[in-house]
Every structure is written in structure tokens, then in C-alpha cells.
Amino acid sequence: MTLLAHLLLLATILAPLGLLATAVTAQGRLRLPALLVYAPLPGLAAALIAGPAPPLVIYADWLRLSLDLDAPGALLLGVAALLWSAAGAYASAYLPGATRFAGWWLLTLAGSLGVFIAGDLVTFYFAFALVSLAAYGLVVQDATRRARRAGAIYLALAVLGEVFLLFAFALLAVSIPGQSLAIADAVAALPNSLVRNETILLLLLGFGLKAGLVPLHVWLPLAHPAAPMPASAVLSGAIIKAGIIGLIRFLPFEGGIAGWGLALGVLGFLTAFYGVALGITQRNPKTILAYSSVSQMGVVMAALGFGLAAGDAATPLDAARYASHHVLAKGALFLGVGVALATGARRAAWIMAPVLLLVLSFGGLPLTGGALAKEATKAQLGAGVLGWLSALSAAGTTMLMLHFADRLRAGLAETPEASAPPGLILPFAVMTAGALLLPWWLYPAAVKFWPALWPVLLGALGFLALRNWGGRLPRWPEGDVLIFAERAAARVAPPLAERASRIEATLRAWPSAGLALLVLALLLGLAMAVAA
Amino acid sequence: MEATPGGFLLVLILVAPVTGLLIGFAQGGRAAERIALWAAPLGVTMAMVLLAGVLHAQAPIVAFVGGWAPPLGLALRADGLAAAMLMTTAVIIAAITLFARADYTTLPGAPEARAPLAFWCFLLALWAALNAAFLGGDLFNLFVALEMLTFGALALACLDGRATQFKAELRYLLFALIGSVFYLLGTALLYGAYGTLDILLLSRTARSDAPTIVAASLMTVGLLGKMALFPLHLWLPAAHAGAPPAASALLSGLVVKASYVLLLRLWFWVMPAALLLAVAPILALLGAAAILFGSLVALRQARLKLLVAYSTVAQIGYLFLMFPLVAGSAAEVAERAWTGGALQAISHAFAKAAMFLAAGVIARGMGHDRIAGLHGAARVAPLSVLAFGLAGLSLMGIPPSGGFTAKWLLLQSALYAGQWWWALVIVAGGLLTGGYVFRVLSAAMRAPSPDFMPAAPVDARQERVALGLAIISVVLGLLPLAAFGLVLIGR
Amino acid sequence: MIYGLVASALVALGLYGLVTQPALLRKVLAFNLLGGGVFLLFGVVAARGGDPVPQALVITGIVVAFAATALALVLVLRLFQITGAATIAEDETRR
To answer: Which of B365, B472, B479, B403 is closest to B95 using CA atoms?
Structure first.
């Protein structure tokens, strides 16, 4: 059994990469898009079967690769693999013949599933880098000016995130006694590390960037609308979860850290409300979904933060449950946008009905999967002020998502008879069913009816108000605060590089180089003379 | 010190390319090409046998030329570092032999021409010089090796015969000669003080007195000039960017490393630890400045080859960060830093050779190397753009590349040693590197204008060679870390 | 002692010339001056100890310097034939 589990874990990462390797032949390249649906299946099987097996460790002496599947990881791995598979099927219908896109897709997939099963620092960093950097290829697929700008900003921030994490991981590795690089050992050593605060700050920066923690969320509303539909679905559904699993894996929930937990929790709620506030000023359905993702990840991070503050060891699994609903529902909705855009008014009900159900599921409507997701974080966000804040955020989410449905209806295809091809409808249907039903299988719970319902009703009221008076809201550009950062960078960066070039040109002249030679010789000699 | 069994292999490694060179020179370009083609696999095999021998013995392999022991005779000494560098050299030279066939082959029936003869002969000469520089156990001997290296490299770089090349390479020659003179002055002082120039003999007797200090600073500065460490890099960008692709790859990937290994020998073998402690922070500071300045200036370059050359200026800087981390640290930290530094030298050699070869193919296919005008390059030379990207990953330090492992080791030892500021430089350099690699790739990946026509057909074999080197630079990071224990042997 | 001083003076003169003179031929000559100074220094070392090894080193050094000079002169000559001028002023890297 352990052997099977290990083989599945290995195949989770190697199957997409192996498939990619078939692209060396022209024939393999052509077949690639049609095979995307199968690539995540080993991951799905691993999530279902592998369960809590002992970790797989390769190169035990200087630990270089280890794979490990715990309960939160298995949950997220399973739903992410399902989304990747459905979106892969969708992609082969949506972008037939896009072989290069398929290549980027497989690379991103390998990293995206890899972060859920990585057991040591180096493997995790590798998977994280893979998912972060390769997703660039998905963002720029449309090759428009907008896609390129979004791609460049995405990549810059992704690399910045990598840098934060590299630093954090190096600090973690130094804190571990002995040679081990296992994540579990790193987390165990973290609370007593001499550089604990620096490490946690860097971890929050690196993972927060990926998960959309305000104000590091700016890439989300740019990248999602610019990417093709299936790419947006996995971007929002699966890829940003790399940040969430990072926080789950690396923060010491066992002992808890009050100060940092509180900070993350407050920032999380801030993000949750910020996402709603900016989202309702948007008109593009995909941008609205992106801001909703920002908001939802804010809720997850709030749960993680307050769980960390309380030292609640159940937090990782609870937060993973909340996040898993988002994987399914947000993935379904992005796929649904593509279906809706291809559907005419006559068949509108067929698409708008499931969309509306998903939308209300986000608000936590009783009987939907969303209600169970909300219930899962009761322990962290259920009591007192936090309970009120979380109910309010559910109301805000309902309002935002209804706004999304409204904007989506305005974007239906112009010919009334138009209907989407089955290749798009089927994956959407699978994901919708998954979002509404799977939580009942994965984490059933009894949900109290009224406390779950009133935020939805409040959100609906808010939406009616928004419809009537929303026109007066100021319009925010996609990526909001980024615009200021861009302007500031445009003012600072070129002069800096210009100055460096000018200094460099001076240094390159013969007399200054000769002088530098002598000065250096004197300097070295002097330093040695002083020391000797 | 005793000569060890297997010493004849060291002599063979030195003599083989020289013999090939002599025969090739006498027989003409066609023969020289054939000899180089045979020598390449032979060289890789010899390097592999030597590497296995050093690993097996867990000790350096030593030979005395003519059986005369130092101080009268000359020693050849292959420790782990030398074996690793010899292996790197053999593989890269073999790759360049394959790459250069497209440019410098003499077709059957065609008359002998000067360029092929010169190329193949100087390639063999350069190889011999590199081997001598890594194996030499005597400071004067190493000086001669470095001079041979400069001359060989220079001849290869000037092969196209353009005026800009002559200018750039003359600047290189003259500055390298200044470096040589400084170095030679230092050896004269050392000989005057100790009566020997053998590295191991010196390491036992070296004192921290005035002649030693003067000699050390002169020799160090001379070597820094030959390595083009910031701010002594005036010659490098034009010299490396102006040469033909095969020569650029050799210059940037390997030639610079010979001076580096010599610098390591000087400081970690010959000089007393007290002096090293005083000098190490200065060297690392220069390295840090090189990383930041070189990367910033690379970001601003309009031409692809100059960008790659400035990237070399920056990457050389990383090699110097290891000095303060090895000097005066606990043994385990020092080992990490040493391994990181050596691995940086090796992975940069592969990555930069790949990058220059790829840039050469791209420039030929597009007819120019203006970065702003590279739209469509990914269609003209897809494998080369891929090679450039992979090599870029290694330079940035993205896993699983060799560059990542190198920078990770340096980063860790910086934190262990409590010198976190070097860690900041390492990550900032990675970020800037990402910037200039992205600039090139994003331009190359864009669709060309509809009326775009490639300037020249691209040779698929050349593309594959560049890609192969880039893949090696990445795969290096997948080797288990223990494999790099090799470079610790004989330290 | 006097040889030592002369050697130092030669080195200093040569270095100054090599760095500041724009004309290539002068740079090459300055390099030879510089080299001469260093070889003289080896001579000083040899004279002090009555040791033959420095002389062997000097001979090797002179051969290397001769080769370098020849190489530099060939390059200068070719450059002059192509461009009609013999300087390496910084110009072509900034195109």
C-alpha cells in the first residue's frame, strides 16, 4: 500500500512533466492539448488513495527530495486535481491546437500539485517556483498588449515572491538543528529560532503575494481577465492556493504565535472587505471574480491568522476546507463565464441558474457547499466580533457575486439561439456539481439555518441598493494601488539605471581603471598591514 | 609531498592537446579539425578517469614533471577543485568543437583556408593552457599558463578580423598584460623572500611580513584585472561581446575561471590565514558591487551580446562572496561556502557558454542583436531561445538549476556566519538577473511583423549544442549535494 | 640597491605610460618598459642569493613578453591597415 501511495505521489509531479516530454516530437506536440485532461489524474488518485502514508524520501543522506501527504494537503490536492482536469478538458475545446499553451499548462500543473505534496524545503521551493513562473505562459497566451502588461507585472511580482521565500527558507534551514531540510523540522524549530520574526515576515510576504493579501494582491485583478478562460479558472482556483498551502505548512499552529497571528488575521479581514469594496466598482465579470478571489483568500488568511493566534492545531485542516470550496466554486464560475459568453438569451436560464446557485454558495446559503465551508472555520472565526465580521464578509461576498451574475447576464451572446459547445459545458457542469455537492462528502456538518441565511439576505439587499445607486461609485482601474506603484517605479528606476550606466562608463576609461588598480593594490596591502 | 600513482594521467592531459596542436599546425586546417574532433571525446574521458581517481583516492593526485621534486622541479597537482574544473573544461570544449564545425569546417575538395587552421589550432592551445592553469602547482608555472591562455583566447576572439574586434581585443590584451606584470612582480618578491614558488612549499612557510603583503596585494590585483572584477572590468564587455560566438563562450565561461582558481590557490593555500581575513571582506565587497552594478548596467543594454557580457561582469561577483564566508568560519560553514563558490564557477561556465552560443545563433538568424528588434526570434531559433531561457534560470538561481544550489549554499553560509548582508546582495542580484533575462525572452517570444524574414538559416546542430550546455547547467542542481563533496578534496 | 630603484622607476614609468597614453604603439612600448623593470627586479633577487632559478624565470618571462609584444604589434598593424588609425578610444561599445 505504501509503495502504491509513493508511486502515486511521484506520478503526481512526473505525469505532467512526462507528458510534456512527449512534445519533443512534432506528433507528440499536436496530441498535447487533447491529453491535458488526463495529466492531473495521478494527483487525484493520490489524494483519494494515498492517505496518510509515511513520507517518501529520496536521497536520505543529504535530503533532497521528499514527498508527504497530510490531510489538508490531500484535500486541496484532490480538488485542485479535479479542477485541473476539468479545466484541461475545457482548454482543449476552448483553445484547440494551442500546443505552446499546453506546454506551459503542464509545467504549471506539475508545480501546482507539487506544492501540496512537497515534504522538504527544496522540493517545495522548486514546486512553488515552477507554478509561479510557468503560469506566466498562461497569462500571456492571448499575446495582446494587455496580456503582456499583465504578464510582465505578474512575473515581476512572482519573482519578488520567490526572493522573499528563498530568504525565508534559507533562514528556516539555518534554524533546523542538523542536516534535515524537512518542512516539519523547520516548523518545529521556528518558534525558538533567533530570527523568528524575520522568517515569519518573509513567509507572509512570499505566500501573501501569491494568495493576494492586500496590498500584495495587485497582480490578481490584472492577470485573471487577461488570461484565457481555462487559465483564469486554474489561476484563481488552484494556483493561488500555493500561497495558502504555504501558510498552512509553514506557520507553527501547534504552539501558536499571538502577535503574528493577530496581524495576519486583521490583514486577512482587511483583504476580505477590500476585495468586495473594489470588486463592486468593476464591470468586467472576470475582474469581479478576481476581486472576489482576493476577498475569499482574505477570509482564509483571517482564519489562519486567528487560528495561529489561538494556537489551534485544527486550523490547517479547517482553512483547507474553506479553501477547497473556493477551488471548486471559483473554478466552476470562471469556466461558466466562457460558457455564458457563448450562450444566447434563449438558453440563458440553463447557464444562469447554476451560476446563481454557485454565487449564493459563496455567500454560504444553507444546503450549498459554501455553507459547509463557512461552518468549517467556525472554530477560528465563529465567536464574538470575529463572528460578526465573518458574517458581514459573507454578506459582502453575496453582494459582490450577485453583481457578478448581473454583469455576466449583460454579457450573453448576441444571437439568441447561440449555445456553447459541449466541450465547454461538460467541464462546467462537472465543476458546478462538485462545488455544490463534494463538500457534503468531504466535510459534512450540521449548519444552523438562520445564522447562515441572514448574511445572504443582507447581501441581496445590498446588491439591490448597488443596482440602483451603484453608478455613483468611482471606477477603479484593475489592479488599483498598482497604478501608483507603477508611476513611482517609472520615476525612480530609469534614473537609477541611467546613473549606474554613467558611473560605469567613467570607471571603464583607461585612466580611472589604472587608478583603480593602484588604489586597490594599496587598499589590500594596507588592510593586510593593519591585520598583520 | 609525494608523487602519487596515476600521475602520468596529469602529464597526458597536458601533453595531448599540445601534441594535437603541433600535428594539426603542421598538417593544415582539415587535419586540425579532425584532431580536435577526436580530442574532444578523449579529453572528456581523461577528465572522467581523473575525476574518478581523485574521488576514489579521496586525495589529490600529484605528479612531478621529469621526476624532479620541488623546489627544483615542477609539481602538477589535481585536487577535487582541479578535477571538477578539468571536467567542466573538457565538456565545454567538446561542445564548442561540435558547435564550431558549422563555421570552421574545411569542406572536402575545398582549399585550405587560414581561419579554420587558426581556429582549431588555437582551440587546442587554449585547452592545453586551461588544463595547465588548473593543474599547475607552481606560481610561476601558472603565470605562463595564464599568458598562454590570454594569447590563445585573443587569437580566437579576433578571428573575424573586424576593426572593432581588434580594438576590443587589444584593450583586453593590454589590460591583461598589466595584470600579468603585477602578478609577476609579486612572484619575484615571493621568490626573493622564500626561495620557492611551489604552492605547497609556500603554504608551509608563508609569513605575514612586508614582502609577502606587498606580493599578495600585487598578485591579487593582477588576477582581479585579468578576471575583470568590478571596477577593473573596462575590457570585458567589448572583448566578450565582440568575439565570434564560440570564442565568447570560451572567454566568458572558462578563461575567466582560470584566474579565479589561481586566486583561490593564492589565498586558500599560500597566504597565511591572518592576511586572508583582512582581505576577504574587501574582495566580497567588490564582488557585491560587481553583482549590483553589472546587473543594473546589463538591464540597460540595447544589444544582446553586450547584455550577456555585462551579465558575466555581474556573475563574476558571486565568486568573491565566498571569501569572507570560508575565511574564519566554522568548518561546516566554510565547506558549504567553498562548495557554493566552486559550484557557482562551474554552473556559470555552462550557463554562460550556452548563453553566448545561443545569442550567437539568434544574432545570426536575425541578422542583428538589437534586443528591441528580436521579435520573432523564438520562431527563427526556438531551441536557442529555450537555451537562453534555461541558462537564464541558472544565472538567476531558480531551482532546480546548478545556479540555485550554488546561491543557496552561499546564502545559507552567509546566514550561518552571521553575515546576512551578503545574502541581501545574492537575492537582489537574482532579482536583477531575472529582469534582464526577461527583457530578452519577452522580446524574443513576441510575434514578428508580417513582412518579417529571417536574415540567415539557423543551423539546428548549433542550436542543439547550446541547448545541451544549458540543460547541463540546470541538471547540475539535481545532483545530490554529496556529489559536490568532490571540490572539498585536497582543500 | 641602485638596481632595485631603477627597476621601481621603470615599473612606475611603464605603468603610467600604459594607462595614460592613447596611442597604441606607445602603450606597447610602455608595456616593454614595465616588463623590463620587473625582469630587473628578478635580477636583483638573483644577485642577492646567487641562485640560478630567477634567471631561468626571467628568460621565460622575456619570451612571454616578446610573444605578447609581437601579438600586440600584429594587432595594431592590422587595425591600422583597416582603419588608418591606431587608438583604442572607447567608442564602439556605445553604439
So the answer is: B472
Q: Output the pTM of the full model.
A: 0.86
- Those of residues 439-478 in A touching chain B at CB distance below 8 A are none
Summarize pLDDT for A505-518 with one digit per residue, the tens.
887 788 888 888 88
CA distance B53 to B9: 10
Residue with cell 545559507: B412
Same domain, A389 and A518: no
Let me know whether A340 and A262 are in one domain.
yes
Residue A10 pLDDT exceeds 60: yes
Q: Which helix (H) or strand (E) holds A57?
A: strand A56-58
CA–CA distance, C40 with C54 (Å, rounded to integer): 10
- B210: CB partners within 8 A, 6+ apart: A529
Q: Which residues of B touch C42 (CB under 8 A)?
A: 188, 191
Q: Hey, which residues does B303 pair with through a beta bridge?
A: B370
Contact A511 C90 (CB under 8 A): no
Q: What is the DSSP string of A409-426?
A: HHTS-SSTT----HHHHH
CB B156 within 8 A of CB B243: yes
pLDDT at C57 over 90: no
A302 near A216, Cβ under 8 Å?
A: no
CATH number for position C18: 1.10.287.3510
Chains that touch C (3 or more CB pairs under 8 A): A, B
pLDDT > 80? residue B92 = yes
- Per-residue pLDDT band for C19 (boundaries 50, 70, 90) equals confident
Three-state SS letters, A146-198: HHHHHHHHHHHHHHHHHHHHHHHHHHHHHHCCCCCCEHHHHHHHHHHCCCHHH
Question: What are the residue ranges of helices labelled H in B67-208?
Answer: 80-104, 114-135, 139-157, 163-194, 199-205
Residue A440 burial class via C-beta count within 10 angstroms: exposed 0-12, middle 13-18, buried 19 and up: middle
Write the CB contacts of B232 (distance below 8 Å, at least 6 apart in sequence). A513, A516, A517, A520, B175, B221, B224, B225
* A413 and A467 inside one domain: yes
Taking alpha carbons only, the member of A416, A433, A213, A240 closest to residue A336 is: A433
The pLDDT score that the predictor gives to residue B130 is 95
Q: Domain span at residue A7?
A: 2-480
How many structural domains are present in chain A? Answer: 2
The secondary structure element, H or E, covering residue B76 is: strand B75-78
Split into its structural domains, chain C has a count of: 1
- Asked whether B333 and B459 are in contact (CB, 8 A), the reply is no
Question: Helices B402-416 & B382-396, crossing angle to 10 degrees?
Answer: 10
Q: Is the predicted pLDDT of residue C95 greater than 60, yes or no?
A: no
pLDDT tens per residue across span B396-448:
988 778 898 899 889 888 988 888 899 899 988 988 898 899 889 988 988 88
Q: Are residue A437 and residue A504 in the same domain, yes or no?
A: no
Q: Please report residues of B whose CB lies closer than 8 A to that of C92.
A: 164, 167-168, 238, 242
Q: Which residue of B217, B220, B416 is in closest CB contact with A174?
A: B416
Strands (DSSP E) along A411-480, which ranges?
none
Among C18, C22, C90, whose Cβ lies nearest the Cβ of A508? Answer: C90
Q: Residue C21 sits in which domain range?
A: 2-86
With an 8 Å Cβ cutoff, are C57 and B140 in contact?
yes
Whether residue B177 and residue C48 make contact (CB cut-off 8 A), yes or no, is no
CB contact under 8 A, A520 and B232: yes
A120: which strand partners?
A182
Co-location of A208 and A228 in the same domain: yes
Which residue in B443, B195, B157 sits closest to B303, CA to CA? Answer: B443
ipTM for the complex? 0.89
Q: Which of A297, A445, A299, A315 is nearest to A369 (CA)?
A: A445
Check pLDDT > 80 for residue A76: yes
Domain-located, residue C66: yes
- B163/C83 Cβ within 8 A: yes
